[in-house]
Structures are given as C-alpha cells and as structure tokens.
TrEMBL record:
Coiled coil: none annotated. It comes from the Bacteria. Part of the signal recognition particle protein translocation system, which is composed of SRP and FtsY. SRP is a ribonucleoprotein composed of Ffh and a 4.5S RNA molecule. Composed of three domains: the N-terminal N domain, which is responsible for interactions with the ribosome, the central G domain, which binds GTP, and the C-terminal M domain, which binds the RNA and the signal sequence of the RNC. InterPro entries: AAA+_ATPase, P-loop_NTPase, Signal_recog_part_SRP54_M_sf, Signal_recog_particl_SRP54_hlx, Signal_recog_particle_SRP54_M, SRP, SRP54, SRP54_GTPase_dom. It catalyses: GTP + H2O = GDP + phosphate + H(+). This is Signal recognition particle protein. It is a peripheral membrane protein. GTP binds at residues 107-114, 190-194, 248-251. Pfam families: SRP54 (PF00448), SRP54_N (PF02881), SRP_SPB (PF02978). It is an enzyme of class 3 (hydrolase). Keywords: Cytoplasm, GTP-binding, Hydrolase, Nucleotide-binding, Ribonucleoprotein, RNA-binding, Signal recognition particle. It is found in: Cell inner membrane; Cytoplasm.
Length: 444
C-alpha cells in the first residue's frame, strides 16, 4: 500500500534532513518533488495541486526556516496535509440506532461488494458482538444469493433464506421483517452490481433505499482502478446519499491514488480498506495512521492492535512495560521472532515501525522458516545475561555463540545489528510520545 509515494517522499525528505538550514528555494524545490510524487501515485491533479499549494505556504513560513530542524518541520507539515487529504478524522460506522441498523452495500460488479459484505458482517459480529443478518438483493446475477449464503456459513453469520421470484425491494422488505422479528442488531443488504453506472441500477438502489432507510450506505470500489474508482464514487454520490466508501484490493495497490483523492474529490470518507481475499482482511481506515505509514513514521497503533490479537497477553504486557522505558533486549527480540511468524512475518512488522521501512525486504527474508531457526539457535547459545545486556557481547563471546549454534560470526553480527535497529526504533517510538497510548492499550 502506498509504496510508490512512500519511497518517493522518503527520498525527498532524506535530502531535506541532510541539510542544516533551509532556504525558501529549498523548500519550494522539495514541494515540487512532493507534487511529482503525488501525481506518480495517481492522485487527481487538482488534489495534488491544492495539497502542494497549502503545504508550501505553511512550509516557507518563518517558523520553519528559522527552526533548528527545518527538515522535520516540513515532514510534519506534509504529514498534516496528508491527514487532511485522507480524512481528516476516522469515520466510524454508525450502528447505534434502533435495531436493526441497515447497512446498504452498493457498487459495480466485481468491485468486491459481496466479499466485503461478508467481511463486514464478520467484523460486526465478532468484534462488535452484534447479531447480524445478511441478505443478497442481487437477482440479476445467477448464484449471487448463493454466494452470499456460502460466505455467511464461512463467517458464521446468518443469511436471509432465498425465496425465488422476489424482486430486490421485496427481498429487502422481507429482510427488514425478519431482522425485526428475530432481534437482529444489524442488517447488511448486498445490492446488485452492474458493469457501469446506469439508470436501471440507480433506480433499483433508490427503491431499496426508500424501502429500507439505511443508516449506512457504503460504496464498494476497487482501489486498483485508481481515478476511475473516484469517478465511480462521484457517479454514485450524485444519485444516493452515500455515508462512506470501502476501498478493496488495497493489498495490491502500490500507488494508492484512489485512496488519496477519494475524500477531496467526492467529500465521502473512506471507512474501510479491503486488504486481501481472506474474510478478516478488512481494516478500519484511520487517516492519521495511514499518513504515518506513508511517511515511514510507522503505524504503531495498528501494529499494536494486530499484535494484541495474536500475542499472549502476559507477553504483551511484559513487552509493553519494557517498551514504555524504551528498552528492547535480545529476549524481547526472541519473543518477537516467535510471535511475528503468527502476525504475518517480520517484514509486515518492519513496514509499520518507524524507521524500519527500509529493512522490510531483509526482514522478510530473515523471517522465512529456516532463517528463523538459525536466529533461534544463536539466541539459545547466548547466556541470559548476554540476552538481557547485549552490549557485553564482545568478539570472544561472538565466536563462542557462533560455534555453539553452528553459525558464523557474521551471522551473529547480523543478528545483533537487527536488534540494534529495532532497539533504535523503540527509542524513537518513545520520543514520538505515542507510547502512553500504546502502553495503555497493552495494559488493558
Ligand atoms: P462483487 O461482484 O462486487 O460482489 O465482487 P466479489 O465480492 O465477488 O469479489 C470479486 C473478487 O475480488 C473475489 O475473488 C474476491 O475474493 C476478490 N476481492 C474482494 N476484495 C478483495 C481485497 O480487498 N483484496 C483482494 N486481493 N481481493 C479481493
């Protein structure tokens, strides 16, 4: 996600940070590069222009130029502008109404609408403990209703029994009745898609909306279609009252143009991002975190949430306590190595941690099965004292560790370097002040 932009921007900022003082020309030149980076990421031209104009105006202010860390200030300004462009706030899903809360899913065929409906149902039932009913109103595509029923069984969510011959409005009515009578909190309506935005589709959507009075109308669009996705959203928004957008296939979208321009162009917030085919590959869209990730500042909060789901609570608490002090020793690294496997590999972690983005490739490699066994062997060959205070590991100890684990001294060095990088990242985290929140979340 956003790899193109992220790489380009980190190049621009590295050059800025390398300088002691900045002139107005330096800042303007950097901002021109930011603009090119945005356009390369397929951001709509007017959005890129507005972004750069606003950011430049702030960045050439005296405060920045006189500051002792002008480069950092510029990064902060671009960060804030990104948040503004993406958000600016996390758009929550509104389901706290007199039940059933109706969520109408709309979108073109193939956008991932049915998959997203099931993912959202799973999230609402498992995470938010809601009693959820799904109904497919797609009578145009053969087997569409069965597809939703199959997914429903997969995610353990009820689907409305299929009755042949009913039209979408009739199905919606029946679904509303069932939901009321059987005490469902949320009703998800998966409407029919079409190949293009056309009159018949819009008429059907409006009729369903009039009959079911949805609290949320979510448009599902494929992020891979870039600016087309934004245009589709504009088309839908002109016809029905959309409450938000779900961008699918973000996992394959290196450019992110749709995500970056959606809010500015359509005025509609992105509420969720689809990040894979699996039923749990749906993330709430947090502009702050996404902006942080794009700028390589790390998405610590998402990381922690993900960790909290997979890591044993006691381990997490221990780690949080240490992290809060900016400490991260080799025992922690060892625990991480074991846990990370379950969280999608070290590479995924590196991508989210500040300053570690560049190490992503290396860590992906390091986390493959065999390499992990080697790392574990080296860590086991160390004494408890060495793991707790790695700086005691001198040349002689390195030779002993290498021998004991059947690895080379170079490999021991590599392991120590990896630890140092991570320790550095933890220290930066602490400085960033994000740890209060982090510790609080772990401490729960
Ligand atoms: P619909 O026609 O809009 O209902 O589309 P479907 O829900 O049937 O999805 C079409 C295909 O896209 C399926 O193979 C899904 O598994 C896939 N898909 C949906 N969302 C995502 C996503 O976020 N990432 C990836 N990689 N695939 C997705």
């Amino acid at each position: 996600m956003f790899d193109t932009l992220s790489d380009r921007l980190s190049g621009v900022f590295d050059r800025l940070r390398g300088r002691g003082a900045l002139t107005e020309d330096d800042v303007r030149a950097a901002m021109r590069e930011v603009r090119v980076a945005l356009l390369e990421a397929d951001v709509a031209l007017p959005v890129a222009r507005e972004f750069v104009d606003a950011a430049t105006e702030k960045a050439v202010g005296q405060e920045v130029l006189r500051s002792v860390t002008p480069g950092q200030q510029v990064v902060k300004i671009v960060h804030d502008a990104l948040v503004e462009m993406l958000g600016p706030d996390t758009a929550e899903l509104n389901t706290n109404v007199a039940p059933p809360a109706v969520i109408m899913m709309v979108g073109l065929q193939g956008s991932g609408k049915t998959t997203t409906t099931a993912k959202l149902a799973k999230r609402l039932s498992e995470k938010d403990r809601k009693k959820v009913l799904m109904a497919s109103l797609d009578v145009a595509r053969p087997a569409a209703q069965e597809q939703l029923a199959v997914l429903g069984r997969q995610v353990n969510v009820d689907t409305l029994p299929i009755v042949a011959g009913q039209n979408p409005v009739e199905i919606a009515g029946r679904a509303m009745n069932s939901a009321r009578l059987q005490g469902y909190d949320v009703l998800l309506l998966d409407t029919a898609g079409r190949l293009h935005v056309d009159d018949a589709l819009m008429a059907e959507m409006k009729a369903v909306a009039a009959a079911s009075r949805p609290t949320e109308t979510l448009l599902v669009v494929d992020s891979l279609t870039g600016q087309d996705a934004v245009n589709v959203a504009k088309g839908f928004a002109g016809e029905v009252e959309l409450s938000g957008v779900v961008l699918t296939r973000m996992d394959g979208d290196a450019r992110g143009g749709a995500a970056l321009s959606m809010r500015s162009v359509t005025g509609k917030p992105i509420k969720f991002a689809g990040t894979g085919e699996a039923m749990d590959a749906l993330e709430a869209f947090h502009p702050q975190r996404v902006a942080g990730r794009i700028l390589g500042m790390g998405d610590v909060v998402s990381l922690v949430e993900r960790a909290a789901e997979t890591i044993q609570v006691e381990d997490a608490e221990k780690l949080a306590a240490k992290m809060a002090k900016g400490k991260f020793d080799l025992d922690d690294l060892r625990m991480q190595l074991q846990q990370m496997q379950r969280m999608g590999g070290l590479g995924a972690l590196a991508g989210m941690l500040p300053g570690l983005k560049g190490m992503k490739g290396a860590m992906d490699k390091a986390a493959d099965g065999k390499a992990l066994v080697h790392l574990e062997a080296m860590l086991s060959s160390m004494t408890a004292k060495e793991r707790a205070a790695p700086n005691v590991i001198n040349a002689k100890r390195k030779i002993r560790i290498a021998k004991g684990s059947g690895r080379t001294v170079q490999e021991v060095n590599k392991l120590l370097k990896m630890h140092q990088e991570m320790e550095g990242a933890m220290k930066r985290l602490k400085k960033m002040g994000g740890l209060g929140k982090l510790a609080a979340m772990f401490g729960k």
